[in-house]
Amino acid sequence: MQETHTKTKIVVDRTLCDGNGNCAAAAPELFRLEQDDTLKVLRDMVDESQRAKAEAAVRVCPKAALKLVEER
């Protein structure tokens, strides 16, 4: 039986994101808030070692602008 690895993609709804930086504070290895308050995603695909940080960033977003999408 072959094991399938699931990849997790970080998706940002730019129409909702207001650049408050909660995600960057929760997961600085995944997000950075630029000088003009735009969000930069540093890694759009996360592995299992980064998943907890990505989930924390999604939870702290007050605008619900982040989500994680599982890809096979």
Q: If you had to describe this structure to a student in words, what would you say it looks like?
A:
The strands form 2 sheets. Strands 4-1-5 form a 3-stranded antiparallel beta sheet. The chain is an alpha+beta fold and 72 residues long. The chain is 25% helix and 28% strand.
Main β-sheet description: 3 strands, antiparallel
Helix and strand composition category: alpha+beta
The beta-strand count equals 5
Count of spatially separate domains: 1
CATH class: Alpha Beta
Span between N and C termini?
Answer: 16 Å
Number of helices: 2
| CATH fold annotation | Alpha-Beta Plaits
Computed Rg: 13 Å
Low-pLDDT parts are none
* Strand neighbour order, sheet with most strands: 4-1-5
The geometry reads as globular
Instruction: Estimate percent helicity.
Output: 25-40%
For this structure, the quaternary state is single chain
Percentage of residues in DSSP E strands: 25-35%
- Estimate the mean pLDDT confidence: 93
Offer a concise description of the structure.
By secondary structure, the chain is of the alpha+beta class.
Q: Which features characterize this protein?
A:
72 residues; alpha+beta; 2 helices
Helix-strand blueprint:
Blueprint: E1 7-12, H1 22-26, E2 31-33, E3 39-41, E4 45-46, H2 48-60, E5 66-71
